[in-house]
Amino acid sequence: MTNIPETGRTPRVQIRLVVIQILVLSLLGTLGGRLWYLQIREGAAYQKEASGNHVQQVVQPAVRGDILDARGVPLADNETRLVVSASRTELLKQKDDGKAVLTKLAGVLGMKPADVMLKVRLCDAKTPQPCWNGSPYQPIPVTDKATPRQALQIRERSEDFPGISAEPEAVRRYPAPGKANTAQVLGYLSPVTDAEIQKAKDTDSPYLRSDMVGRSGIERTYDKVLRGKAGVTRYEVDNLGRVIGKAKSDAAESGSNLVTSIDSRVQRVAEYELDKAMKAARQQYDKITGENYKADSGAVVVMEAKTGRIVAMASAPTYDPNVWVGGISGKDYKALTGKNSDYPLLNRAIQGQAAPGSTFKVVSTAAAVNAGYPFDGRYPCTSSYSVGSQVFKNFEGENFGPISLGRALEVSCDTVFYGLADREWKRDGGINPKKGQPKDYFYKTAHQFGLGRETGVDLPNEVTGRVPDRQWKLDYWKANKDAWCKSGKKDGTYVEKIAYENCLEGNKMREGDSINYSIGQGDTLVTPIQEAVIYGAVANGGTMYQPTIGKAVISADGKTVTEIKPKKRGRLPVTQATLKGMDDAFAGVVTRGTAAWKFGGWPQNKIPLHAKTGTAEVYGKQTTSWLATYSKDYTVIMTIAQAGTGSGASGEAVRNIYSALYGVQGDGSIDNKKALLPEPQKSLPKVRTDGTVVDPKVPGDPAKEVEAAQKNNTSNGDTQQSPATSPSPTSTSNTRRRPRRRGGRRMLT
Amino acid sequence: MTGANSFSVSGYGPERAGWTRVFARDSVARRLDWPILLSALALSGIGSLLVFSATRNRTEINQGDPYYFLLRHLMNTGIGLALMIGTLWLGHRALRNAVPILYGLSVFGILAVLTPLGSTVNGAHSWIVLGGGFSLQPSEFVKITIILGMAMLLAARVDAGDKKYPDHRTVLQSLGLAAVPILIVLLMPDLGSVMVMVIIILGVLLASGASNRWVFGLIAAGAIGAIAVWQLHILDAYQINRFAAFANPDLDPAGVGYNTNQARIAIGSGGLTGAGLFHGSQTTGQFVPEQQTDFVFTVAGEELGFLGAGLIILLLGVILWRACRIARDSTELYGTIVAAGIVAWFAFQAFENVGMTLGIMPVTGLPLPFVSYGGSSMFAVWVAVGLLQSIKVQRPMSA
Description:
Radius of gyration of chain B: 21 Å
Number of domains of chain B: 1
Strand order of the largest sheet of chain B: 1-2-3
Organism (chain B): Streptomyces bungoensis
Structural class of chain B: mainly alpha
CATH architecture of the largest domain in chain A: 2-Layer Sandwich
Shape of chain B: globular
Strand content of chain B: under 5%
Distance between the termini of chain B: 24 Å
Number of helices of chain B: 15
Largest interface: A-B, 50 and 63 residues
Protein name (chain B): peptidoglycan glycosyltransferase
GO biological process, one term (chain B): cell division
Pfam family, one (chain B): FTSW_RODA_SPOVE
Number of strands of chain A: 25
Oligomer: heterodimer
GO cellular component, one term (chain B): cell division site
Largest sheet of chain A: 7 strands, mixed
Largest sheet of chain B: 3 strands, antiparallel
CATH topology of the largest domain in chain A: Beta-Lactamase
Helix content of chain A: 25-40%
CATH class of the largest domain in chain A: Alpha Beta
Radius of gyration of chain A: 34 Å
Helix content of chain B: 55-70%
C-alpha cells in the first residue's frame, strides 16, 4: 500500500470534484424549486383536483313539490311506487350486454322482453320513443308499477339480476281530483338530458343526473321552485371506489308547493262542459259543408276579471298526464304526438289561434271611437255594403237602420263596422296611402288591446296570434310572393285567383282586407287567453292583467309563503264612457242580442252576465265558434273549432259554468250552498305546522252535480229544451245565430 | 488477496480496532461521519413511516397485516445498518482485494436473473424471488461492484505512484469491466439501473482524473446511444411511453400518464405543511401506484407537505455534500473514486426518483435511496454508506 498524500487531490481531480459537487447541489436545488412550484405556487389547484379525484356523490332525489289548486287540493303530487330500474353500465359489462338478464326480468314483470329492451336503450336523433333520454349513468326505470311480490323476487335473487334494482321511489302522480285532469295546464316531466346538465352547470340551479324536469305547463314554468334541491352526500373513495370516509353532505331540500288559482271543481266543470259541447256540436248539421260539425278541438278559459288569475283552463282533445310517469310507452307517445294524433299535448287556450270573428268587434268599436266616431252616433246597419263590384253582406241580410255602436255590438251588425273601417281606410289614403304615417286606428287599437303578442301567462310556449297590419302584409308577401306568382292564374280556380291577386298587390292593404278585418275575419288570429284578457279588462273597468296560474309558493316546511301578485299589463285604450257603453251592449247580447236564446231564465238582475258571440270563417274548414263572456268577477271564453256559431256551440256550456260558479239552479234560483265559487278565492290554503297543506276533499264529480242541478228544473226556460243537439236555426226574433257564411264574402271578385 | 485473507486483515493501523475502543479518542466512532449516518438513519426512519402510511390499507398486498411493510422496512434498515458496520469493519481497502470475487458474484447474480430463476416485476425482469416474501434485485449490488471494480483498476497505477492519471488502457479496461453488467441489465430490461450505471461511470471517470476525451467521449456515446436506441426501436413501446408521458400525461393517460398525474396531484395538494401523516386522501385512496417503492416521495409530498418533502431533499443533500467532502479529502485516488461513484449514484437516483414524481423526469423504476421500500436497494445504499464511512475513518491514519 503506497502512501502518496497528493493522489486523489491532483488539481484536475480536485476541480472535477468541485464541479460534481456543484452539479449535485444544483440538481437538488432543481428538485426543491420544482417542489415549491407544485406545492406552494400551484398547491391550491392541485388540492382542488385531488378533492375531485376521490369524491363520489350519492344523490338523494328531492321530493318534488305539489301543485295545488286554490283551495289546497293537490293537482299533482307524489306517491311511492316500487320502481324496477336497470343500470346500463352494469348491463353492458355482461357478455351479451345484459340481454339474458333483461329477458329474465321481463319474465318476472310479465312484460315482453322486447319492450324491456326498448325502454333501456338510449335516445338519440334517430331513435324513436320509447327510449331513455336521461343520463346513461343513471339507473333507467323499466317499470314503476312493480308489485311487492315482483320486487321481492328481484331483490332476493339479486345474483340472478345483476344491474337490476327494485326500490321504492317517489313518483309523480296527477290525481285528477273530482275528475279534473287539467292535463295541458299541469304539463309533464321527463328526465334531464346531458345537454341540459351541461347548460345549467354554472347557473344557480344546476341539474343532477337523476333530476326530472318539467317539460310543459306549470311543471315547466315553475320547475325551479317545484324541483327543490337533491341531497348530495360526498363520500371519499379510494381508486377502487371503496368508501373510506364521508366528506360532506347536503340534505335534500324538498321542492316548494305551488298553489295555483285553478279551482279543481270549476276546472272539472269547464272540462266536462267543453267536452259535452263538442259532442253536442258533432250532432249538429252544417248546411254549408253538408255534414255534421266536426268540432275537433276547443278550449275554455275561466279567469278572475279583476286579477287575471286563471280559475280554469281546459283544452280539448285532452289526455291523461299520468302516461308520462315512469317513462312513456311507444304507443302512448305516438298517440300524443304522431301525425295521426289530434295533438292533445297542445294547450289550445294559449297555443290555439283562430280568427276571432265578431268577438273582435270590441276592438273595432274602440278603434272607431278613437278615430273620432262617437259611440252614440248613428251608423247605417244596412243589409249589405258595396265596394265597387264587391258586396259585403250583413248577416242574413238583416237591416236595422241607423244604430249606435252599442247596438251594433248587441246585434252584431257587420255593415256598421264595414262602413267605418272603409272610411278609415280611405282616410289613410286607400290602396296607396298618403305620404307619412297612415293613422291605422283599427290596427293600432288591436295592438293596444294586446293582440299580436303573448299575454305573458305563466305557461310556456304561448303563441302570439296575429294582427294583419301593413307591416305583416309586407313581410308575408315577401315570404310568399314567389309561390303566389308561380301558382296564381287570373282566370283559374278560387285558390289560383287569390294567389294571382296576392302576387300583384298582396303587399298592400286592400280595401277588402280592411273591411273584412273590422269584423275579425281574414288573417287576424287570436288566442282564447288574449280574449280572456281583453274581456276581463272590459269587465274590470279597463285594466289588462297578465294572466297567472301560479298564486303562491309555499316552502316545503310551510314556513315561507310567497304570494305571486297579479300583474297589470296595461289599460284598454278606451274611455270610461265608451267602456260603460260597451258593457251595456254586452249585457244586451245576453238579454236580447245574439246570445239571448241560450240565456233564457238567467237571473240577470242578480248576476249580470255580458257576452259577445263570434263565428269565424276558416277557408276549407267549418266555422270556428267563439263565445266571450264576463260577469262581475269572472270572464269565461270558450272556442270550438269547426262547430258553427259561438252561441250555438258554446252558449249552454258557458251558462253551465256560470251556474256552477254562482250556484244558479235550473229554475233560475240561486243556491249559495251549491255555488262553487261565488266570489274569487282570496285566501290561500291553510298550512299545518308540519308544512303540509290542508286539502279539502272533492267528493264525486262536480260537473255531474251541476248538470243534475240544471236538469232537475228543466220546466223553466225553453233554452234547456233546445240544446245544441237540435238542428240549426231555431230563430226567434232576437236570436241571431251565425251558422255559416258564404265563402264568397272573402272573394274579391 | 483471497477473500478469506481480506476478512482477517480488516481495519488499518498498528492495532486492530476493537469494540471496546469504539468511543475512545481517535476511535472509529469518533471519526465516523455522523452527519451522513444520522441523515441516512433519518431518511430510513421517515421512509418507514411513509411506507407504513402507503401500505397500511393496502390489504391486497400487505397480507392483512397493516404493519407488514413497516416491519420489513425497519428490518431492512437494520440489516442495512449491519451491512454498513460490516463494510466499515472490513474497510474499503480490504474490499478492494475482494473486488474480483464480488464483481464475479454480482455478475453471476444478474445473469441468474435472466435464467428461469428470475422474475418479472413491473415489466422489468430483474428480480430473483427467494420465497417467504423476500426477493433480491442483483442489479442493485452491481452498482457497488462497478464502482469498486472501476476504482480498483483506475486507481491502481496512480495510487502506486506510477502515474499521475490513469492511462487510456486502464480506462478502456475499466469501461469494459462496467460494460459487461450494463449489457446484461439492459437485456432485462432495467433501463433505470442502466442509466444509473452510466452516470456512475461518468462520476468515476471524472474523479479518476481520466483524460477529458474519455469524459466527453462517454457523454457523446451516451447521447448517440440514446438516439440509436430511440431510432432503432430497441426499446419496447411501454418504455417509450414511459419516457414521453412524464412531460405529457395525455400520451398515456391510463398508464404512465396516470401515475404521473396522480403523483403530481398528490404532491401538489400537500401545500406547505401537508395533510398530516396518514391523512393524505390520495395516499389513503391508493390513487398513486407503487407508492411504497418508486413513488414513496408522493406520500411525503402529500402528507408532510413542502416542509417534510423538503426535509427529505435536504437530508439527501447532507449525505451528498458530506460524500463529496469525503471524496475530496480522501488521501488516495481509490477512496476518491469510490466516494465520487457513490455520489453520482445517489445523486442521480435521487434526482431521477424525486424528479419523476414531480414530473420533470421520465418515469423509471428506481427507488429513492433509504426511503423506498425494498431490501436490495436498502442493503446496497447502506453498504455504500459503509464504504463512505470506511474512506472517512481510514483517511487520517494513512497520513
